[in-house]
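TL;DR need structure tokens for one chain.
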Amino acid sequence: MKNRTLLIASGVVATLTLCSGSARAEGDLRKLNHVIIVMQENHSFDNYFGALPYVPGGPYHGPRRNEERKERRHACDEHDHSCVDGLTCAVDSLGALHCENRNAESDGTFVHAFHETRYCTGPDLDHSWSGSHPEANFFFPSMTRRFSPNNGFVLRNDSSEGQIDSGPETPTDDDTMGFYTQEDLPFYYSLAETFAIDDRYFCSVVGPTFPNRSYLMAATSFGHLTTSESIPPNGGYQPITGTFMDLMDLHRVSYTNYYVDFPVTSFSFRPLFTAAHAEPISAFFADAAAGTLPQVSVVNPNFGIFGVESENDEHPPTDIRKGQEFVSDIVNAVRNGPNWKDSILFITYDEHGGFYDHVAPARALQGGARNPDGISPGQCADLSNPPASEQAGGGVQCAVSQKEALAICPHFTSTGPYPEDCPNFDQLGFRVPFVAVSPFSKPHYVSHRVGDHTSMLALIEKRFMGRNPGEEDEDERDGRSAHPSLTARDANADTLEDMFDFTRAPSMDAPVSTAPAASPTDPGCPFVNPG
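>> reply
TL;DR here they are.
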């Protein structure tokens, strides 16, 4: 990674970085004028789209059988964009799926992935830093970067989700191994089959909501590991490398955080009542109808902060169909509005929520660095009280993160050298669903490029902050593109442009359905804790 220009302004450290490895889009990226990000809560790729290859009459298939070795491939060929790396299942004569994917129970028996018929599941599964690493590697959780067999989902959640084994279980008692099908999530499946998806899109951290959403807004969690620290100090968190809002301000990119009950995305970094770029969801629908959406929109669901009755973020035990209905409203507002012709709408999830996924979390693309900004897990640093707060462990509100780090790394100290053999921020989290709804999306296309939440930042940086096409130098002619960035993570993130064709806009006239309305009588709803 080469640094060309160090730009320090308005509290932002922005580096013009030459990034390698991103696939280029077909056509002129300048045709893109609006990016809309919808990030829901707590579902893995296999939990929602693991059954996608088995939709009757669908456009996708799973990894092909290796005829030479007479065995199934473990992943899709990188050039096969009709292949989805989902669950490994057989379909019986009635259309039911019987899957090979499994996790062990404490008694040595196995729980196989199964079709979950309840739309409200609970209690909440473990998706903490200290819980997610044992889910990836139950016996050696500090070694997930070297080896992640994803063998601890059942064992970890049996001891932490309130479902401790006390006797015989049915094959569907372990929520973590459940998956949904096109019958349960018809709108999401329709989008995935119509537009473009990525089956190698991972959340940014092997852990929970706040660190992952921090990567969306700052390309780092600046040492934080837990959602327990999501309520910010007065004035908001101040990452040393700045926030994406700072970067957009600096480059005069228009943006709005639209919200239902609370502007969670911007709240952690900008004071609530001085957030000039936060607007209620009614403003989104008005802007979409009028064709006045900003260049960047982040749309928050109802997080249930003022009452779970209207919550639609899909975080268990919320009815997943409430979230699907909300996202359907957002997608249709864009699809039927004047801005559709030059927009990309990304739908994804902040993290896996403790639900099983069979693919090992990938290495983070950040130039070989162990973390994106020189800050290791639990050694929080920020600009709350410089220069002391810029030192390892000097950042505000880090006590719970330090406990989380110690739980996985016995040699951890909050201020000393970070142990080389412990997990750092050089591994992405588990896979989560990722759909790109756009007139530019390649129809029923599956990307296999590794991405994370900072891939969306990198695309925005390249489109709205980078140099114009034609203004290239020798490095760019070699296939590397320059754009401003916050940290080594978004500087090196793949922009996932292979999902798009800006010349032909092949999905311009693609139809978009509407989701079925959620019902109070949806299966398993409302969830009642048996304890």
